[in-house]
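USER: Note each token:
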Amino acid sequence: MLETSRERVALLKAGLDGKTIEKLYVILNNFELVGCDPRKINCWEFVGCGRELGGENVRESGVCRASFKTSTTGINGGKNGGRICWAVSGTFCGFRMDGTYAKKILSCRSCDFFHKVREEEGSEFIFMTNNVSNSIAEAAESI
């Protein structure tokens, strides 16, 4: 159900917004969001950027990579890269493109959302991905 773009475009033309269509797609196809905690908010919800899939600012600013990086779903309880956005290169933070991890991590470490996730996750907090051990991640944090 809603597998073709033609079906989804018809719903858009009928007045449904992208978020509603995405929810219908998940429900009608019996998809299960694995590893996500619906009580935990993702970065795009926290900052209100509107750059998530189906978001209001996608047309002018594009879709944020954190919102569709499925390999990071479940990390820190988030959807896609929504709760580990600081480890996703090319995210759009503070209304500017932050680019590579090395260039953006300093601004991310001062981000209110980063601190919120770190506090909520406590000892389970995951700082980095791609098989980088937490001890290396912790060492990087102290720089």
Notes: Confidence is low (pLDDT under 50) at residues 131-143.
